[in-house]
Specification:
Layout: H1 15-23, H2 30-41, H3 49-61, E1 66-70, H4 76-84, E2 90-95, H5 98-110, E3 118-122, H6 125-128, E4 137-142, H7 149-159, E5 160-169, H8 185-199, E6 203-208, E7 214-219
Parallel strand pairs: 1-2, 1-4, 2-3, 4-5
Antiparallel strand pairs: 5-7, 6-7
Length: 221
């Protein structure tokens, strides 16, 4: 069997090839590449280019002016978010690691984002989030310890305005969520999270197979 153009046998195209094609759709520039390299040096695993492109798209689609990011890392996901936000938008990013936040600030400065666009908070996110304004944010990105995702989800829903979006990264747990035989604590927690989001009447959600999985939901009330 061949594709629409009759030149590529469909059965030759593997899942890995499709994934690589999708991940490379939006090329990363030198600033993003440097931030990703610093992440590798710190032993961190930032969101991939496909997931980053989705963040940029979502931020642009909803005209995000106020965004909360849980886990700054070295700035990869923050750069993608900022590029989709409005020109006066402010990214509030929380991380417990001051060294990584310093690396992130370097990346943001290299990309031309000054202090007026950033609020970098060093601390435990679950201690910081309760101090943020109810219904004051357009988008919340959660990219931290997966077993604690349900607690972060509750905070995210509180922080979002109606029509706001929450994104939970790494929701597929390296594909183990789809494996019926996988029963480790993280996988079970992710399955419960996915069920919780799907059944929450305040949310309209979808699960995207980008990177390690993006669980995305819009708050409708």
């Amino acid at each position: 069997m061949t594709g629409p153009a009759g030149d590529v046998p469909i059965d030759v195209v593997t899942d890995a090839a499709v994934r690589d094609y999708v991940e490379s759709y939006r090329a990363e520039d030198d600033v993003l590449a440097a931030a990703r390299e610093r992440a590798a040096g710190a032993g961190a695993a930032p969101i991939g280019a496909g997931g980053g492109a989705a963040l940029c798209f979502l931020a642009a689609t909803i005209g995000a002016r106020a965004v909360v990011e849980i886990s700054t890392g070295t700035g990869v996901s923050g750069l993608w978010l900022l590029r989709g936000m409005t020109s006066d938008g402010v990214l509030t990013s929380i991380d417990i690691d001051p060294e990584q936040q310093r690396s992130a600030r370097t990346a943001f400065t290299e990309a031309g984002y000054g202090p007026s666009r950033l609020r970098l908070i060093n601390g435990m996110a679950l201690e910081v989030l309760p101090r943020l304004t109810d219904a004051g944010y357009d988008l919340v990105l959660v990219d931290t310890v997966r077993t604690e995702f349900p607690r972060y989800l509750d905070e995210a829903i509180r922080l979002l305005r109606p029509g706001g979006v929450v994104v939970l990264n790494n929701a597929l747990g390296r594909g183990r969520v789809a494996d019926p035989a996988a029963a480790d604590a993280t996988t079970l927690a992710l399955r419960e999270l996915i069920r919780q989001v799907r059944e929450d009447e305040r949310l309209v959600s979808m699960l995207l197979p980008l990177g390690e999985g993006l669980l995305v939901a819009t708050k409708i009330r």
